[in-house]
UniProtKB/TrEMBL annotation:
Organism the protein comes from: Streptomyces violaceoruber
A single MF term (Gene Ontology): DNA-binding transcription factor activity
Name the record gives this protein: TetR family transcriptional regulator
Annotated region described as Disordered, given as residue ranges: 19-44, 154-179
PANTHER family: HTH-TYPE TRANSCRIPTIONAL REGULATOR BETI, HTH-TYPE TRANSCRIPTIONAL REGULATOR RUTR
Length: 269
């Protein structure tokens, strides 16, 4: 083979490799291509695929926040203004979508608790700031219902749950008797996509950080001695009503939280 033929052959092989690597994934997902060294690499989502993903996640937060995790995928697709097939291409089952939302919202609450803990010197101010921030964000409505069990020891008959059905978290240190609380992973048996959800959503980490806020406020004498982490998260979950008017919802949430905060405060003997 002459030197000119060798150059032409090498150029043809190089062009074929470039053309092969440039082919996008047909479904708009992250595409895996092969580089010149044979190592796979991930291509970014197409612009329209990324936009659809953002629409689906935003719609899922709204729908699950309003209707609970039992809402069907069709409602999510309708709110996102995409076909249900588009939702399933990104999330092959409802369980996958529910876990994604639960993980993101639990992580957001954990960061809000850390911020309050790190930036507020006064214990009550830190706890109050966390509650106000989390209620305003609406993240509490998206906590999976299995995350906490309040008074589980008293409510369940002995032997009703197996040892493999739950992940325990440390009991609150408050110096007085209280019911245990725990992160649970028991199967719901329903269609809400929450079967087995628990520790993998980051709930244990959330409970630990909120527990520090509760301990500090209780030790300062500003928080009632019988208030637990479970109580605080119940406040977050219930103090953000879903109303059609945004201004009305914000006002109602702020008023309800003011009342609940007064109920959490300790009173002079």
């Amino acid at each position: 083979m002459s030197s000119a033929d060798a150059v032409r052959s090498a150029a043809a092989v190089s062009a074929a490799m470039v053309s092969s690597a440039a082919v996008p994934a047909p479904n708009g997902a992250t595409a895996t291509t092969t580089g010149s060294a044979g190592a796979p690499r991930s291509a970014p989502l197409r612009v329209d695929a990324q936009r659809n993903l953002e629409h689906v996640l935003r719609a899922a937060r709204e729908v699950f926040g309003e209707l609970g995790y039992g809402a069907p995928m069709e409602d999510v697709a309708r709110r996102a203004r995409v076909g249900v097939g588009t939702v399933y291409r990104r999330f092959p089952s409802k369980d996958v979508l529910v876990r994604r939302i639960a993980e993101e919202e639990t992580s957001r609450l954990t960061e809000q608790a850390r911020t309050a803990l790190g930036q507020e010197e006064m214990p009550w101010a830190a706890l109050s700031r966390f509650l106000r921030t989390s209620v305003a964000s609406g993240a509490g409505r998206l906590l999976p219902p299995q995350v906490l069990r309040v008074g589980a020891e008293a409510e369940e008959p002995a032997g009703s749950a197996g040892a493999g059905d739950e992940t325990r978290v440390p009991q609150q240190r408050q110096g007085v008797g209280q019911d245990d609380f725990r992160v649970v992973g028991q199967r719901s048996g329903g269609a809400d996509g929450l079967d087995g959800i628990g520790e993998e959503t980051g709930a244990v980490e959330l409970l630990e950080v909120v527990g520090q806020l509760v301990d500090r406020a209780r030790d300062s004498g500003e928080l009632r001695r019988d208030v637990t982490v479970a109580d605080v998260l119940l406040v977050i979950a219930t103090a953000a009503p879903s109303l059609p008017d945004a201004a009305q919802q914000a006002a109602a949430s702020a008023r309800l939280l003011d009342i609940l905060l007064e109920g959490l405060r300790s009173r002079p003997a």
